[in-house]
Automatic annotation (TrEMBL):
This is Bleomycin resistance protein. It comes from the Bacteria. Residues 22-136, 150-264 form the VOC domain. PANTHER family: CONSERVED PROTEIN, GLYOXALASE-RELATED. InterPro entries: Anthracycline_SecMetBiosynth, Glyas_Bleomycin-R_OHBP_Dase, Glyoxalase_6, VOC_core.
Amino acid sequence: MTEARGSAGPIGEADARHTPGTPCWVSLMVHGLAAIQDFYAALFGWEFQPGPPQLGPYVRALLDGREVAGIGQLPPDRHLPIAWTPYLASNDVDLTAETVRLCGGTVGVGPLDAVEAGRLAICSDPSGAVFGIWQTAAHRGTAVTGVPGTPAWNELLTFETVNIAKFYETVFAYEEEPVSADPDHVTLHIDGRPVAAVHGVGNALPRDRGPHWMTYFEVADTDEALVRIVDLGGHVLKPAHDSPHGRVATVADPEGARFSLLQRPR
């Protein structure tokens, strides 16, 4: 992980979060929607409201009445990896999706309109890591950051950074900055601020996942959250440890969706 504050600044930085290339939303597709809502409600204090009916069974997670994430239900016959997916902002989803294709990526869904909410596409980079593209309309994306229960950072875990980082730089015009402590770890910047990272971990990638994006959620107390996750039927994948950016841990929800926790330094 690198500097997490870049994508989760003070409440009210909505305009910056919708600069093209900036992570602006996270979404999860699961098989048991009701049970997963109960899990995240107990863990993060989320409440839920129905999303656009055209998207199928789908809810938006709210924290103090403000949208933070989305959760949808997979059709029974779709056996896809259960994973949190970050959406990167775009002013023109169709153009961005075409650039993804030209740069060796794949567009799996869309581009399509999400009713009046906006326009989206779901893509994968040349290594197979899945991400979304979001062109905002009525739905502005994550409405609050910087407090427990909100997305704090997104980092791509992949085999190596050189070629994959260049893919994202070409598609989203990121500027790359190496992380000094790790030669295969770079931060992606927009307008001088860090918004995401790419970390080459080679054979340390989970065999059942391959390259994938990891979303960090902010918590008030990482150790306390880990106890709650286990009690709720989740799993601890990497125990809590201190980092320069706070106390972090990697976990999975009851359906296996991996995510990380971040407790900011006090």
